[in-house]
Amino acid sequence: MKGVIPLSILVLLSCNLAMAQDYSSRHTGIYFGASAGSAELNNNTFERLSDYGFSNDETTSGYQIHFGYNFTPNVGLELSYTDFGDYTSEISVPVQNTTLQEDIETGIEGAGLALVGKMPVTRGFSFYTKAGIIAWESTTLDVARMDDETFMELEFKAEGTDPFFGIGAEYSLGRSAIRSEYARYSLADGDESFQIDMFSLSLSYLF
Question: What does the alpha-carbon distance between residue 196 and residue 43 come to, in Å, rounded to a whole number?
Fold first, then answer.
C-alpha cells in the first residue's frame, strides 16, 4: 500500500503533462507574448563615422511585443511591435585648452506583420520560420558640446517599409510557449541603410 499513492501521483502527473503538450502541439487561435534580446546594427553612416575616428557602439538590447493567430497548428500570422534600442557614436577632440565632444544616438522602432510556418519535431517542440514586412522609423540625434555647453543639436529621421525574416525553435507546455529566435531586418531609406540582426528569447500565452 505504501507504493500505491506515489505511483498514483506519478501517473496523474504524467497524464496532465501529456495533455498539456497535446494541447500546445495542436493549438489554433490567438496567442500573445513578449521577447527581449540583443540587436546588432550594420549602418553605412556609422561605418563612415568610424573612418573619421568615431567610437561606435552598434550592439544594444531590444524588445518586442507580438500578437498572433494560428490558423492551423503549422501556419499562423503574427503582428509585432519592435524597439531595436539605441545605437551610439562619439568622438572627443582636444581644441586648445578645452575638448570638443560630439555624441550621435540613433533609435529604431517599427511595427511588423509576418507569416509564420511551424515544423513539429516532437510533442511540444517545433522549429519555425517567419517572413514579413516592417514599417519602421529611425531618429538620430547629433549633439556637439564644448566645455560641457551644447552649441549644436541636430535631429534626423528616416523611415520605410521593408522585409524581414526569422528562424527559431519553440517549446510549448499547456498554454505557455518559450521561443528562441534569430531575425534579420534589412531597412533602407534612400542612401541610408540599416541591417539589424536580433537574437531574442520570448514567452507567449496561448488562448
Answer: 9
Q: Which three cell numbers stand for residue 56?
A: 561606435
In the numeric block, the cell 539605441 is attached to 86
Q: In a 10 Å sphere around its CB, with 0-12 CB exposed, 13-18 middle and 19+ buried, how is residue 14 labelled?
A: exposed
pTM over 0.90: no
For 107, the enclosing helix (H) or strand (E) is strand 98-122
pLDDT band at residue 25 using 50, 70 and 90 as cut-offs: low
Please count the CA atoms within 13 angstroms of the CA of 144 that sit on its side-chain side: 5
Candidates 35, 38, 45; CA nearest to 78 is: 35
Q: Cell numbers at residue 10, please?
A: 506519478
Residue type, 190: G
